[in-house]
Fold each of these.
Amino acid sequence: MTAGHPDDECWLRRALELATRSPAPDPNPRVGAVIVRDQVLLGEGWHHGAGTPHAEVEALRAAGDARGATAYVSLEPCNHTGRTAACALALIEAGVSRVVYAQPDPNPVAAGGASTLRQAGIEVAGGLLAEQAEALNRGWSFSVRHGRPRVTWKFASTLDGRSAAADGTSQWITGGAARADVHRLRDGFGAVVVGTGTALADNPRLTVRTDPPPLRQPLRVVVGRRDLPPTANLLDGSVETLQVRSHDPAEVLAACHARGIHEVWLEGGPVLAAAFLRAGLVDEVIAYLAGALLGAGAQAVADLGVGTIDQAHRFSLVDVTRLDDDVRLTLAPRPTEIPRPSEIRRPSGVAHSTDLQEAD
């Protein structure tokens, strides 16, 4: 971060606030921008989703005359022309004299805006409030760096680790407050993933049911080769459903990544969860623990290949939240090697919900 002006942080915080209005599950990052001259707000804007003008362009349009002004942006202005023009060029053409941004752009395709601006004689400062800006785009930043979506595994269990009773019933392990919390958190993800076993046993809808309703529903992803019956809730047409006819977690994530999905909410049963864990493809765990005991029934996770305590999958506790008589634990895996983009397989055997009955 280069030397700045006393009011830089104040205006940049406004840009970050505007960025929160951008859609969270979107192929593009959430970005806000503010145009200021002589400490007077001229215009502001935020990105409204893929295919729409970027935040800088929105702010410049609102400002009208931006000559000699300072542009505050939550993410380094892009240097790439795709469906929209490069924001760095838009700022140059508008005649701004200074640009302050928070998070450097990790995307090699779009990065380089700061350099282009400097070459045009514009003063540039970057890095202020970078951590806060990156937190707004947690999944997008992760996806760009690792070549796959970030995975959150959610499960609910009794105190003795049971996800269902001996007769297979599992509704409801947790109470209403915990179930409402699941819908609130699910709303921030681009896809919800389950296996065919869960889809056939529970007939879930996998939609976000909140008040007010979400702006968009996550993609429903079913993993496995078995067909779903025409009466399945996942085939009701209310939300798009994608079936990945594979049991390879990397292939599932590649199919999601190809669709611009940056964060996956894994709600699969014990077998699918174990597959993701054994592949090292779980980046966060959200566990709902109910104050109940079953003593028998399905475990929350299947065999992980752990033969001794030294091989246990260990997690760091990030947060504990009480939800009436239930508890939500948020945990992060202790550092392990994250698969590189080259290790993520190309998707194959992918069928849309309209193709499920015709696929092999």
Note: Confidence is low (pLDDT under 50) at residues 337-360.
Amino acid sequence: MGMDANWEEAPLVIGGKKLTSRFLLGTGRFPSPAVMQAALDASGAEVITFAVRRVDLDSVEEDSILQHVIHRPYHYLPNTSGARTAEEAVRIARLARAAGLGDWIKVEISGHPLTLLPDPLETLRATSRLAEEGFTVLPYTSDDVILCKRLEEAGAAAVMPGASPIGTGLGLLNPYNLSMIVEEAQVPVIVDAGIGSPKDAAEAMELGASAILANTPVAKAKDPVAMARAFSLAIEAGMLARYAGRIPKKRYASASSDEAGALFRHADESAAASGAAGGLA
């Protein structure tokens, strides 16, 4: 693929909103509000996510989490973490919108206590209902190609497949599935959960992801601010690599020059020719 000269200016569009940053950042687990703010600044993120259950919906402006970001130009993506059914997720989304947190919602419905993988049926039901109610729905899902397509058909503004189980840091366990999800999707594909390092983010972007959502690998890093910056750079590098077009993989080695060892061979041939000429003389 030839590189688009304007690739850097190409916006990410979700639910009609244009975003210049392709890094969405979670707000949990940071060692302090000051570190969180500094990491947000370093990340360049425009969208931040947080669990609605952690927010005081009766006093949003005074909430211990949001008071540190409420006067900054961030777009809120509240999530339904803690919900176990579609009904619970829908109720949480409605409460968040009524509290003034906007109409974007990340549907997150856990279906397994150990892996915390999302419940596919409940996630699909919640996505369909919330889309009908006018929400901009971004469902967190497993990396199932068919399920991601069904979520899109149900009205999801983007699909958010996990790279691996949330919080594991295992990175991208199934690159093939992600590439297929990207190939089939007509909405942005945001890789969410399981990312462990900037390397994982770059790989996902190179495979065609539209954006990356992360929290733990930044918040729990030894230096969250530096890690936030590293993620931002890796996401840009991965996207640039995708546009640049990588070389095809080969089974066997091939030299980067046309004729390996030509310099030495030519020197040997010249010496041999000189010796032969001397013998004739």
Note: The two ends are 60 Å apart (CA to CA).
